[in-house]
Amino acid sequence: MKETRRKFIKKSAVAGTGAIVAPTFISAKVFGANDRINAAVLGLNGRGKSHVSGLMKQNNVQVTTLCDPDMNILKTRKDDFKETYDQDVNLEQDLRRVMDDKDIDVVSIASPNHWHSLSVIWACQTGKDAYVEKPGSHNIWEGRKMVEAAQKYDRIVQHGVQLRSSPAVNQAIQLLREGYIGRVYMARGLVFRWRPSIGDKGFSPVPEGLDYDLWTGPAPKRPFTENLVHYNWHWHWDYGNGDVGNQGIHETDLCMWGLDVGLPTEITSMGGKFLWDDAKEVPEVLTSVYNYPEENKIIQFEVRPWATNTEQGVTVGNIFYGEKGILVVDGYSKFKTYLGRDREPGISGDDGEQEATGMERGAGGTDGHFANFIEAVRKHDASILNAPAETAHLSSGLAHLGNIAYRLGKVLNFDPKAEKFVNDPEADQMLTRNYRANYVVPNKV
Q1: What's the predicted TM-score (pTM) here?
Q2: CATH number of the domain within which 76 lies
Q3: How many CB atoms lie within 10 A of CB 418?
C-alpha cells in the first residue's frame, strides 16, 4: 500500500506573519536499535489518555512528560499514570518548555484543534518528531506550513487517523485500486454521531489551575466559558471545526485515499442548526459536495447529530460507488462489498478476523498506528509512515473547504495547486487567521 499512498501524496498541491516565540533549534539524536525513545503527550483531557497508553505499549518507549494547560487534569493523570505503570511522570503546563527539553524525542499532540499545526511546527523546529491528532490543522494555510516544517527539518510527522494502519482498510483500498467494484466514481463520508445540546453556560471566572492564556494559544482570546473548556470548543469556529473537522477527518481522509484524489476544484455546502437552541456555532447538520471535474469523481459528505437511520448499516464510515458495485467501510477496521444490481455479497474484511484479512490480528487501531510511527522514528524514514504530514493537510483541508462554503453560503471554485480560491478574496481570507502574539504560525518555517 505504500505505492498507493505515495501516488496519493504526489497528486496533492505543492506549494499570520510575525515572529514566533519558540525554543531554539536542537539537533535530534540518532536512534540505535536499543535506544529508548522518550515521549511527551500534549493535551490530556480526552484523546491524550489513549496516546499515553499507545506509546507505553511500544517497545523501549517511555512517556516521561505530560503537558496540559490545566494543572487539575495533569495531577489526575499523574495519579492515573502511577497507578497503571507504577512510575512517576513529569508535569508541565507550557508546551514550550517541553520543546526546550533535549531529553524528549517525540511529542504526541492531543490538544484542541487550534493548537495542532503550531505544535507540530515547534516540534519540528526543535528536532522532535510528532504524532498529531486529527485534524492536522485548524485552517488550510497553517496545514501547508506544517508540511513545510516537516520537510525542512526532516522530521517524522504522523497524522492520528488510525484506519490507515488497519489491515482491513488497506485491503479495501487495494480492492478499489484493482477495480473490484469497477471504475470508482463517488465516495460518501458519513458522520452520524449523537451530539446533544451543550446549553449556554455564559461567562464565568477562569478556574483555579487552568492557564487560560496557554489554552487559547494562537486563537482569539474570548471571555472564559464552560461552553469551551474542555470539550465543547469543537463546536466554536475559533477553536474547532465542527464534526466534519472532528470525527469526520477519518472519513474525509478515506474518501480522498479511496478515490485517489487531492483537493477538489468545486465545493458547495448547506446545513444549519435544527435541533438545539444552545451555544454551538457550527451546524448540527451539514451536507457538503466536493467535485473533481477533471477526474470525473465526486465526494459527498453528511454530518447528522441525533436520531437518524444508518446507511448500509453504518453510522460512521464510508461508501464507495463503482460501476460494478459498492464498498462499505464501517468505522476504522472493517468493510463489506456488494456486487451487481442484486447486491450480491462479495469480499469482506475485518481486523478482528484473521482469515478475512490474511494479516496478523491487532495490526491496526491506535496501538498499531503508534507502532508504525515509532518504527519510522527509529529508522528516521518518513516513507514508511502510514499517515504522513501531507495526508494530514489534505484530509483536514477537505473539511475546511466544506466549512468555508457553508459559512459563505455559495459555491466555491478552488485551485488545488495554488491552494487559493479562484477570484474570491472573501473566501481566501478564510484560508488562514490572525494569530495572537507569542503564538504566531510563521510564514517561513
Answers
A1: 0.92
A2: 3.40.50.720
A3: 10
